[in-house]
Amino acid sequence: MPGDMQKTWAMGGVMLGCLLGMTPVVVGANPAGGPHETKEEMPVRTDNSPQAPTEHLPGSFVRRFLTAYIVESPAGEDLPRRLPPAPFSSPPFPMSEHIGPTIGSPDATPNNMPLMRALSDTNIGQVLRKSRVNVYGWIVPSFNASTSRDTNIPLTYAIVPNSAQLSQAIVTIERGLDTAQTSHLDWGFNITNLYGTDYRYTAAKGILDGQLLDRNQLYGYDPLLFYGQVYVPWVAQGMVVKVGRFISPADIEAQLAPSNYLVTHSVMFTYDPYTFMGILATIRLNSQWTIDVGVHGGNDMAVWSNSSQPNGHFMVKWLSSDNKDAIRLGANSVGRGKYTNGHDNLQHMVGVWSHRFNDTFHMMSEAYYIYQFDAAKGGTCIFGPTRPFASGGGCGPTIPGLSDSIGAVNYFQIKVSSKDYVTIRNDMFADLKGQRSGFKTVYSSHTIGWSHWLSNELIVRPEIRYDHGWSHVTPYDNGTRKDQFAFLTDFIIKF
Prior knowledge:
Blueprint: H1 3-26, H2 61-67, H3 114-119, H4 123-130, E1 134-146, E2 163-175, E3 186-196, H5 210-214, E4 220-232, E5 239-247, H6 267-270, E6 275-284, E7 289-296, E8 311-319, E9 325-334, E10 347-356, E11 361-376, E12 398-417, E13 420-431, E14 441-453, E15 458-469, E16 483-494
Antiparallel strand pairs: 1-2, 1-16, 2-3, 3-4, 4-5, 5-6, 6-7, 7-8, 8-9, 9-10, 10-11, 11-12, 12-13, 13-14, 14-15, 15-16
């Protein structure tokens, strides 16, 4: 790493450290060192009780594993939290909280999936449970039928039309954080491994990047997450510091299938940052305000890659007193914004609003502005051979000066039953100079999907979607069509 880059990284780290050190003073720390509680918060738990009770399934490991898909896990205890009741029901929805960081809840790491249940009577299972370490995952096969012939891009992640694919196979080892308690430090980590076609959108330069950048493979492996974190209850009303590689924290949508309302992603999400590597501190100032501040090496690259540059992160989350509304906005990534050595360095200004109408209806909206300088048309260079489903062959032409894009999306959810919901999504993405998609145009997509929980471990999600380009160019199916219609479904099998 060049000397000036080292100095810049060091300065960023010093600034972050100073901010963390001053936080108790800035927010008015309790002189006794305790948290600032508010009257609407629920009691604090001081132990680390597991979410689900220990159970004893009969037979061998294989039999116990298969039985876990038939016999539902017993309900866990309702653990206290320093927050109002969760605004959304999960299931059927993929999330129970508003978008953004949540400090004040007990450890929510899944510990009742079939693998952990099958391990419950083994020595290793007992050690894992006692240590609050959980091993879990899922596989997601998918199928789509499309009016396109060669590629579904910019629809993601099912880019190969009229085919079945393994979207993602995930294995996670995680120790979550208990931020409901305020009596002691807590620590955790997350190691998540991904294999499937979805790796094309999570791959980071400097981390096994040859699969995508050099060979343009359809399938690949990505060590998607690897970070450690610590919870410090005595800074303001709680602080979590995370170090490593983590998912870009700004969006409604996420890379992991069970965390999304739909099979596909909005066009705007397709072209924004996916992961960062760096340090991120989240600080709960009071029951309504939370901030996060950090330094990372730029979107979708390791800090040791020759494209990495220091970027700052600062976002704020406001939660209404009735917990029906949340607003989260700020700079997800801000720095020099210089496209370097064939890789994007996206500058990302973003805002998200979520609103709960009642137990049946809620919605989420997001808008962003993305820019960088001297970018290649089409974004990060893929030097592998061009495939029918995705371009390759090197870098696109350079766009001198500023390249920018604007995106917006709205999600509207309808709870049909305790196991079913319907989502309606409309989104727009304006690629003003073609820096992200390779086409200078405005995109829109319109999607309606249904999600049904067959059980806690099995979810099916069919949807229909229409995409359209609003200019004279033809951005679909490798530049041959102005629009695209698709039916898709996937099947989430948790273990």
